[in-house]
Amino acid sequence: MINFLLKRRLLAYLIIGWAFFLGCLPTNNGLAMPITSEILRNEGKNLREANLQKIYSFLEEKIVQTRLTRMGIKSADLEVRLSALSDHELQRLATQMERVKLGGDAGGAILIIVLVVGLIMLILYLTGQSLRIETRTKKAE
């Protein structure tokens, strides 16, 4: 019996160690390659167009449109102002608009909470521990 419990405890420690190890690994999304000035020019054009597309898609949403009309901002004025922005300003605006989620982003938080609770339950199960929740009752006087 003790040997079985030690194996389960060892397995739990291995899973925890493996999860910690995977969390520490760096993520690398691309391979290193030499960058030429032509690539930089094309990237700048493509990046500006992509940022403009993100901004326009955000501005086309119905809630944003109603808010802009309430504020008295016309779409023609927006286009003039957006065309006057520099590439860096467009990049900042596009990243800020990506962060803004209409109605909030509770899905990610709920997923993290579920994963943490599941991991705790797995660790408790593998180590042979258990939680007992008791309710207190008032004694009759």
Low-confidence stretches: none
The count of strands amounts to 0
The mean pLDDT is: 78
Q: Count every helix, treating DSSP H or I runs of 4 or more residues as helices.
A: 6
Rg estimate, integer Å: 27 Å
Broad shape: elongated
Structure description:
The protein is mainly alpha-helical and 141 residues long. The chain has a domain of 68 residues. It has six helices and no strands. Helix 1 runs antiparallel to helix 6 and helix 2 packs across helix 5. The longest helix has 23 residues. The radius of gyration is 27 Å and the shape is elongated. The mean pLDDT is 78.
Helix-strand layout with pairing:
Layout: H1 2-24, H2 37-59, H3 62-71, H4 75-84, H5 87-99, H6 106-127
Helix pairs in contact: 1-6, 2-5
Offer a few descriptive terms.
141 residues; mainly alpha; 6 helices; 72% helix; 0% strand; elongated
Offer a quick outline of the entry.
The protein has helices spanning 2-24, 37-59, 62-71, 75-84, 87-99, 106-127.
